[in-house]
Amino acid sequence: MNLIVNADKNWGIGKNNSLLIRIPEDMKFFRRMTKGNVIVLGRRTLESFPGGVALPERTNIVLSKKKELKADKAIIVNDLPALFEELQKYDDDSVFVVGGESVYRELLPYCKKAYVTRTDYEYDADKYFPNLDEMDDWVKTGESEEQTYFDIVYTFDTYENNAVKDRR
Predict the structure, then answer these.
(1) Which of 9, 32, 104, 118 pairs with 132 at a CA distance of 20 to 30 A?
(2) Are 111 and 1 in contact (CB under 8 A)?
(3) What are the beta bridge partners of residue 18?
(4) Cα distances (Å, whole numbers) of residue 102 to 35, 72, 151
């Protein structure tokens, strides 16, 4: 399992159930990485998608404690055992955790790769991703050249987890 996230210099990822910034190249990267694959997300992340509906051309699996939750074109699971049972149907490398904060934190130990768009700016955030640079098990294995979007500088970084938990 992998994850994909856009984080600012303080690892902020969102505010008021919305992304901190929308960088066209980052959105293209997200589409390229997740299209045709499986995305795992929380209910609030689903609600933040255009129209509050599942993303097309992907298998959307929503992890939510709300047992009554219904979502068109999405699979709903209510806990980790149910999620892991559902994920057995898919190749591990085709699964991407896409948020939000609590889903990232819950599934981070089970992810082997993290694709992080790092923005060199501090936004006013109310949701944060764990700082991978401070975690012993996570190692940065790749960093793109600096990119710019207007006056915003960002990189595409790859991290690998040297202690992935077995979810089976």
Answers:
(1) 32
(2) yes
(3) 15
(4) 23, 22, 30
Tokens, residue 118: 């790092």
Pairing of strands 38-42, 18-19: unpaired
Alpha-carbon distance values, 47 to 51, 56, 64, 72, 158 (Å): 8, 14, 12, 12, 27
pTM above 0.90, yes or no: yes
Encode pLDDT of 42-83 as tens digits: 999 999 998 999 999 999 999 999 888 888 899 999 999 999
As given in the structure block, the two tokens for residue 42 are: 């929380």
Q: β-pairing, 152-161 with 59-63?
A: unpaired
| Structural domain includes residue 7 | yes
Q: What is the CATH number for 129?
A: 3.40.430.10
- Structural domain for 37, as ranges: 2-152
Q: For residue 68, is it within any domain?
A: yes
What is the token pair recorded at 95?
Answer: 């699964």
Report d(CA 36, CA 122) in Å as an integer. Answer: 33
